[in-house]
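Tokens help. Our protein:
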Amino acid sequence: MSDWSANSYSAITIADDHELAAFIALAGLPGLSPGRFWSLLALGAPSQIWKRVAAGRAPRHGRAVDAARAWPAWCRTVDPGAELDRHRASNTTVLPFGHCEYPDALLDDPDPPPVIFRQGPGVLEDRVRVAIVGTRRCTRYGEGVARELGAALAQRGVDVVSGLASGIDAAAHAGAISRVPARTVAVVAGGVDIIYPKRNRGLYRQIAEHGALLSEWPLGSKPETWRFPARNRVVAALSAATVVVESGCKGGSMYTVDEALRRDRAVFAVPGSIYSPASAGTNKLISDGAHSLYDFDGLLDAVAPLSGPSVAQAELGIDSWLLEAVGWEPVALDTVVRECGRTPSEVTLEVERLIGVGALRRLGGVIERVT
């Protein structure tokens, strides 16, 4: 299947509160990867699956020691109804795949989360988003760039996406929060109620109040190591472009880059000193072909061109080269790539920008012009 094409997953139907409670409880199973969650959901209604798992009858998954062996004992400690009440009491919205408020950018993703848990007023409508990522051990230079870029994107009406880690992530979120209205989306590796790292407590509260906190896991889920790569794929999948401000040659930022490239999304890297370990990864990315972010204008003009500062989505650029390739009939993205002669990342950037200004809309695996 082409990464441009819609995935094979169907919308998850939740019949009533009883099924929703079981669905939330299933999402919290220890060691449950997104892929395995999809496999479980194919077995039937959430309440039926919960009974099967609690009875120790979950299907085996591979030949290694199976996390499912611990599930029956864990299930005895969990009351699905109480979990539903807890999520409602904390204003945590549960968005199963296919829900009307589930992020549009993830619906056609090759590896979509079965569920998104959301806190905050930020509605994940079809609009332009840019990920800003980087090392936790950033320099003052990197922190300043991330903060200023986050603020500049938010000022243009672009949502800033990151993982709410220390360093570059926190600086990017802080920059976006400094603008009114705030435009930032934090994707976390635990439950949206788990503040990690603790030093970001104030930033967590600001984003919960003004932006959007997202997770694949229910309240109380701890940010275990295996969850960070899964989190990074969602950061990349939500975003039209990924900007790496500072990074070593290995680590979470590079995993996010891999996930962005897998989806043919544009990757930008901020150049830095050849003597700085914090810039070793970004300098290599540029050497390997990433866009060099030597100033903000190139990125800002690509995703949200304006004649002057504004917090509204850009309204210029409606006479786009892409609209001619799209025409007036629904068309698949891979068809547009073939016909317009541009790279997939260029097409993705322009599609997301035109969706943001209301010139295009996404329908399943195709896009079409808005009259």
About this structure: The two ends are 31 Å apart (CA to CA). Residues 140-155 form the longest helix (16 residues). The chain has three domains: 17-89, 129-303, 321-369.
